């Protein structure tokens, strides 16, 4: 497949890979990545939120997501809701938990419902360029406007201030923003709200939805992320996420799950008298038939045939569905959303096959297999470069990204720019990429996490993990601790990389923009007449840093 000519540039700061070489490399223009500041209308809100405890920025305490004495205090969230008039009781909701796929499934499902004509509230996290992305309301799917969000905050601020006093200042950033979202959805009288859990499920601030308000729970996947916060094992993570299952309300399982993990989820559903729909059972058939270009970006043509089992005798057949969200994992998310739509239909909600198809086909998300435009690439100082952004940050999502790139562009040369948060499994992430096809260059860099530095992983530590992974896998690399690498820099020319083309160049560089420029130069020299892709990945925060530079 021909690589689309849309790429996005990012801005970084000056650094020192090597003095004269670096100056020659990055030139005098477009050397710096800027940060994107929120709209002026949100100044009061952002100052208020910044004064609160923010676990996205500081990290989550051990055991905080478990249903135990160490877990977050849901009573605090319920008391806040009571003071706001219990807005959660004024609309119906679908609650989504899972290690990966929550945001994509929420997007697919929201668009299906909008296609059917419903007014939909959607609450997800984290955001990429503006906090407004976390809330959308109505039939458009657009983020809440800065003006509307500011008005909402000022309308309920006196309630928040009172609650903060009663709780001795312990209400968190996430709790306040979740309360605002629920208040907005009640205010706008939405038909239905799609709510993504922030961490785990049982003790997440979103888990105040009662069975009378819940249409269905969805658990997308169970993986090894936030291990310490969720009990330290895959089993404890499954138990924490199963906390969103409510009495008598359907549970939709994404998956596929390990057998003993699915057993934990089904046991919890059984104890709650909740019927289960599995989007990975034998009656569900989904296949990727081929790839093509649609509106200048790759899409996959899929068949989705659903024969839902005993509890829900429902079916639908959607042939030649064109998904802009590429990869087998995104097809699974689409199937999970479609199964949930059938649950809605079974409960009497109007839901046509045409709306399911339309919703799936019209879904795309920033930072998920996103190709930047050629104009964006030029703005980043990387004209003519194909840039792929993906917020993969776990072993599973790295594997999915590697498989998606291999499926979509099997012949393209690749260079990576990676930044990760400190609480991720860096070694497992590296192994997945190094186990795939050969990489021309890997640059480990840094990006702020939720606007702060507490959870940043240093570029040098990331490099050490990638070197360790390369040794385990017997990958021949040329890294920046080797004399040959220093000689390459002293030549003040990327041409010298030609002599080492059989080796992957690996280096640490604090500055994102410099990393992208350097990786791109190596990629272009080595690719010559072949296609090449510069992949930026490792977290949604590095994606945010890149996209923020385009909003300056």
TrEMBL record:
This is Folylpolyglutamate synthase. GO terms for molecular function: ATP binding; dihydrofolate synthase activity; metal ion binding; tetrahydrofolylpolyglutamate synthase activity. The keyword Lyase does not apply. Keywords: ATP-binding, Ligase, Magnesium, Metal-binding, Nucleotide-binding. Residues 384-446 form the Mur ligase C-terminal domain. Pfam families: Mur_ligase_C, Mur_ligase_M. NCBIfam families: folC (TIGR01499). One of its GO terms (cellular component) is cytoplasm. It comes from Dipteronia sinensis. Residues 96-340 form the Mur ligase central domain. InterPro entries: Folylpolyglutamate_synth, Folylpolyglutamate_synth_CS, Mur-like_cat_sf, Mur_ligase_C, Mur_ligase_C_dom_sf, Mur_ligase_cen. Belongs to the folylpolyglutamate synthase family.
């Amino acid at each position: 497949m021909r690589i689309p000519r849309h790429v996005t540039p990012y801005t970084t700061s000056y650094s020192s890979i090597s003095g004269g070489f670096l100056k020659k490399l990055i030139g005098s223009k477009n050397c710096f990545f800027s940060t994107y500041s929120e709209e002026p209308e949100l100044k009061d809100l952002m100052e208020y939120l910044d004064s609160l405890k923010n676990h996205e920025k500081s990290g989550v305490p051990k055991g905080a997501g478990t249903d135990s004495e160490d877990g977050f205090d849901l009573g605090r969230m319920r008391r806040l809701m009571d003071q706001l008039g219990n807005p959660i009781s004024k609309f119906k909701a679908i609650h989504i938990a899972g290690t990966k796929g929550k945001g994509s499934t929420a997007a697919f499902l929201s668009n299906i419902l909008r296609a059917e004509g419903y007014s939909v509230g959607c609450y997800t996290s984290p955001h990429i360029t503006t906090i407004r992305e976390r809330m959308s309301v109505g039939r458009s799917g657009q983020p809440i406007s800065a003006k509307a969000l500011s008005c909402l905050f000022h309308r309920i601020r006196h309630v928040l201030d009172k609650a903060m006093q009663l709780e001795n200042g312990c209400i968190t950033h996430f709790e306040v923003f979740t309360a605002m979202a629920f208040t907005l959805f009640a205010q706008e009288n939405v038909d239905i709200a799609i709510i993504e859990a922030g961490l785990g499920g049982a003790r997440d601030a979103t888990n105040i939805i009662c069975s009378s308000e819940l249409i269905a729970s969805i658990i997308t996947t169970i993986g090894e992320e936030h291990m310490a916060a969720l009990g330290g094992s895959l089993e404890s993570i499954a138990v924490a996420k199963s906390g969103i299952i409510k009495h008598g309300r359907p549970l939709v399982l994404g998956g596929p799950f390990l057998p003993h993990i699915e057993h934990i989820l089904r046991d919890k559903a059984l104890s709650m008298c909740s019927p289960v729909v599995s989007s990975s059972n034998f009656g569900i058939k989904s296949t990727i038939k081929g790839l093509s270009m649609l509106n200048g970006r790759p899409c996959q043509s899929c068949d989705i045939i659903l024969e839902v089992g005993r509890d829900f005798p429902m079916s639908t057949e959607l042939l030649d569905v064109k998904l802009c969200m590429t990869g087998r994992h995104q097809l699974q998310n689409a199937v999970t959303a479609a199964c949930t739509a059938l649950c809605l239909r079974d409960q009497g909600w109007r839901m046509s096959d045409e709306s399911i198809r339309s919703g799936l086909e019209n879904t795309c998300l920033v930072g998920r297999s996103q190709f930047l435009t050629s104009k964006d690439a030029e703005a980043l100082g990387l004209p003519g470069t194909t840039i792929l952004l993906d917020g993969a940050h776990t072993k599973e999502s790295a594997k999915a990204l590697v498989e998606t790139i291999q499926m979509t562009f099997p012949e393209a040369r690749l260079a990576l720019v990676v930044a990760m948060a400190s609480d991720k499994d860096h070694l497992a992430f590296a192994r997945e990429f190094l186990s795939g096809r050969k990489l021309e260059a890997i640059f480990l860099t840094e990006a702020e996490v939720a606007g702060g530095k507490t959870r940043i992983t240093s570029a040098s530590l990331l490099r050490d993990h990638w070197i360790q992974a390369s040794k385990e896998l017997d990958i021949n690399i040329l890294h920046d601790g080797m004399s040959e690498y220093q000689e390459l820099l002293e030549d003040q020319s990327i041409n010298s990389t030609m002599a080492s083309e059989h080796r992957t160049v690996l280096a640490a560089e604090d500055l994102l923009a410099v990393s992208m420029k350097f990786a791109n130069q190596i990629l272009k020299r080595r690719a010559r007449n072949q296609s090449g892709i510069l992949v930026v990945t490792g977290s949604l925060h590095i994606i945010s840093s890149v996209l923020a530079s385009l909003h300056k």
